[in-house]
Amino acid sequence: PASGVEVIWNHITRYRGGSVKRLVTQATPQPNGSYSLVYFSDQFVFRDKMRDFDPKNPGNVLFYFKQEVTAPARLAGGVLLVHETLDQVKEPRSAWLYNAGQRRVRRAPQVSYDGPGTASDGLRTSDNLDMYNGAPDRYDWKLIGKQEMYIASNSHKLDDPTLKYADIIKAGHINQDLTRYELRRVWHVT
Fold this sequence. Notes:
Layout: H1 4-12, E1 19-29, E2 35-46, E3 61-71, E4 79-85, E5 94-99, E6 104-107, E7 143-152, H2 165-168, E8 169-170, E9 173-174, E10 181-189
Antiparallel strand pairs: 1-2, 2-3, 3-4, 4-5, 5-6, 7-10, 8-9
């Protein structure tokens, strides 16, 4: 890559298969060791993998994203729907939120950049999902170069089905005895 924004663009547009469906548990660890859990069902489908995709008229959509909150009960049923565009300067992402308590759908322009992530207690921003997503235009990306860094990778202990959340989530962060880091050569972008 020739620039920092090119590295970010390569990340945003990388191949991830035609679609992704995953169950996500989000924890907000507190300094005293307590935490709250929010459960999500996420679905992505990439535009070029849909049956009605016409390569002669591809449009400006990269993928469609739906996230449903499944628990706790006070948040369950809330849905976020996003149409992620390729050129977000020309046509910003479109997002809608369904509030189950109000039984209303509303446009959600705040679901971008540093807008707070759903039920994250301000610990995650919209553009932080999947490391980075969204329009790169508000940041001055600088490519520092290749650098060896210790990166969290292959932390298979965290995937042990016998672990309880209390084994993983500790005061302010996850249990470092369960993580694994590898020395990797990565593109350093600030």
